[in-house]
User: Fold this.
Amino acid sequence: MPNYYAHLTFGQRVLADLPAGLSELIEQEREAFDLGCLGPDPLFFYQPIRPNAVRREGIKMHRRSALPAVERLRQAIEDGVPMSTGYGAGFLCHLALDSACHGYVDDRAADGPISHMAIEGEYDRMLMERDGLNAAEQSPLPSAPADRAVWEAASQAFVHASPDQMRRAYRSMAFFSGFLARSNGRMTGKVIGAVSHMLPIPSAKGIALKETPHPSAQESNADLNRLLEAAIPETAEQITAFFQAISAETPVPRWFDRDFKGNPPPIPQRIRWQDIPEHSVT
Assistant:
């Protein structure tokens, strides 16, 4: 999955591609939309050194079909929960971009010289610098929304995260993201990089970027750009279909029955009695 600035950039592009009436409605809830573009990721940062249900939900959600969360968001929109339209649209953007890119990033990290998180970080750096931002000085995350309604809407997507827990998770995410950004290319980053190589987490190795981009990033950035661009029209189409389904009181598109790598849920294998070995029959 691309990193946070990529998700915010993608959300902006999809928003511009939606039908005018729908995009205007979402734009009125822009803080919620931007938060939704981060998907379940803020939950990773909730009390990160202590086992807890909030963080576990964020991790497990990436491995399972997003459909239950999508259905919860649909219910919130139908119930008229303030800010749920904006948050829901952003959440669907996050799912779509992860679906488009996650498989590529995993394969690239398995074959290449830098890790999953480093690939994402290099892509974010390229996008930020293209937009005139200093990736070594600032986090791309917006300020935490002051309106409690945003956190109320966000919590609707989850089972274990309350509005206050969502807010604390996001603030923790912003803190760690800012700290990591300011460590890139500095001695602090070298220390973080050395420690990351000692951890039993392959995806986190080299998480602190060096002063200059890794040579392999030129190719991976170009590939991720193509994947992002290609995902925009389909995502706009599926989000439009999602809101049309709410209006028509019909099921949400099956397109959303996928995990955050874009994989459909596994089909349970049917066992026939003919396949049971004879010696196992009593």
Observations:
- Residues 44 and 277 are 45 Å apart (CA to CA).
- Residues 4-135+149-261 form one domain.
- The chain has one domain: 4-135+149-261.
